[in-house]
Amino acid sequence: MATDKSADQCGYRLPKPRGWDSKEFVDGAQWTETGSGDVVCLRPPWEDSENCIWHAETKNKPVDGLISARSDGPERLPKAYLVGTKFDIPISLSNCLLGGSNLSGSYLKFVDLSRAGLKDVDLSGSDLEDAHLSESDLKDADLSGAYLRNADLSGADLKDANLSESEPQFAYMSEANLRRADLSEADLGGADLLEADLRRTDLSGTDLAEANLLMADLRRADLSEADLAEANLSEADLAEANLSGANLRRADLSRADLVEANLSGANFRMASLSGADLRRADLPGAYLRETALSDANLEETNLSGADLGNADLSNFHLAGADLSGADLEGADLSRANLEEANLSETNLRKVDLSGAGLEEANLSGVYLRETDLSNVSVVGTNLSGADLGNTDLSNFHLAGADLSGADLEGADLSRANLEEANLSGANFRMTSLSGADLRRADLPGAYLRETALSDANLEETNLSGADLGNADLSNFHLAGADLSGADLKEADLSGTDLGEANLSGTNLREADMPNANLTDADLSTAILRDAILRGATLEDAVLSAAKCRGANFRNARLYQTVFRDTRINSATQFVKQGDDFFGKCVYEHSPAEILASDKETFDYDVHPYEAAAWTYRRLQSLHEENALSGRTRQFHIRKEEVQRKNHCREQNYSQWAIASFSKWLTNYGESFKRLFLGWVTTIMFFGLLYPFLGGFAADSTNESYRLQLTLNPSVSGIFESLPILAQSIYFSIITFTTIGYGDLYPTGLLSKALVGLESLAGGLLIALFVFVLGRRVAR
């Protein structure tokens, strides 16, 4: 700036620049200091200008004039105005202090600016091709749009400088300090940035193709969308740098530090990342086909959506890495450490995972068909929704693994350990689970049709809602398993142990369950239509609201079985029966065999006869509830009959005699035929006794009817006795029915006693008739 001056002085005044006294300058007589700390230029004015040739605000100054005004040696020329000046002849400004000068649009090819102080200099749009700027101080300088091809900037300090849209192709910038410099959209193709300091530098969109960045410091630099094709970044420090969308085709990043770097969408085709440290780096959507990754550290790296097709990642440490949605088709991941890695929705088709560690890894939705999984450790791995069709998982340790919704069609899981695994909604169609350990595994909603389950352990397994139609589960151990809501239509469960299993709401229609153990099982609301349960043990089982129409329970053990609101029909069988016979339950039919059987299958506190009585009583009620009166009567009869047998077994002969009389007389209150036969027998018995024991007489004629105890055996004697016997039968009938017409009366003491007995017997037998009739009507 101008100040008061004499006519022979420049008088340009400015605050004393930093570094003013940093070295010995040759222009001591050309400057003076004021008391306020400013400095004033004492050079003579130039031509018609008020200021010297250096400070006059005139464009295109003559170079020869500048050379003439130049002192020999280091000179202080701050705030020089050299806009548009064409230095077409060599001039040295080496070691000069030019801070704040304006050289925009100048031609500086032949100017030596090495070790010059160029802080805050404006070099925008200037031509610096082949220029010497080594070790110069260019902090905060403006080099935007400058042409720097082949320029020597080695060791230069370009901290916070603006190099946007500049063209330093093949420039020599080794060991230059470019911290926080703006190199956006600059063309640095082929530039030599050996060991350059580019920390926090803006290189977004910059052309660095073939640039040498060996051992360069690029920490937190912005290289987004930069072109680094064939660039040498070997051993460069790129920690936390932004390389998103960068083109790194054929670039050498061997042994580079890329910890926590942003490499999303970057193109690494045929690049070398061997030995690079990529821990916690972000590479989502990056292209890594044909990339050399040997010895690279990818621990906790984000490779989501990355293209790693055919990549060699054998023996890699990828613990905690994010590979979700990545394309790894044909890649080699043998013996790789993928513990806790995220591989969800990843394409692993034809991948070699042999010997890989996948403990606690997330492989949900992964495509694993034709993948080599031999010797893979998948403890606690998340394989939910994964496509494992036709995969060989035999003998695999999958305990606790999450395979919910996985497609395992045609896979081989024979002898696999799936203990406590989550297999809900998984597709096991045509899968082999033979010999697999599925204890406490979760398979709700799983599809298990046509699945080989021989020798599989399903103890306490959750199969609620699973589709097991036509499944062969014969002789399986399913004690405590949850099969609620499962579809077991036409399944083979013969001899299967389902003790304490939950079968509520299960579809067991036409299921084959002979000799199955269903002790304490919950079959409430289950569909057992046309199911075969011959010889099954259902003791303490719950069949509340079960649909048992057409089911076959013959020889089944039903002691303490709960039949509440259970639906049966005439086709439901509990005992063997025909048109003229009704069979016995297993407790009554084979008590000795039951007593000799395994104690675990029967409660020894109760004798088989007592169990039979309880069973008949419950079946009687069940059939009555379902309006099956004929069978209700039959089960009542069987109940009373087995109780009669039990009285005899317990030597309770009085009760046995009463029960036997009830059986003979009314078939336990169920037979009109036997009751009528009792009537006839009683009438005939007393009718035959009256003539021999006192006789009787007619009231109207006083004629007596009496016979001797010894009858005339002749024909004539018998015929003579017939009228008396006929009258006696008539007398017995009116006495039995207590009609009492009064035309006949007993004449002897014994006959009177007989009349009293017959009247009593008749009243009782008629009352029994009313009772039996009432039972029939009530049903």
TrEMBL record:
A Pfam match: Pentapeptide
Family annotation (InterPro entries): 5peptide_repeat, K_chnl_dom
Coiled-coil residues: none
Domain Potassium channel: 726-777
Segments passing through the bilayer: 676-698, 718-741, 753-773
Keywords: Membrane, Repeat, Transmembrane, Transmembrane helix
Protein name (record): Uncharacterized protein YjbI, contains pentapeptide repeats
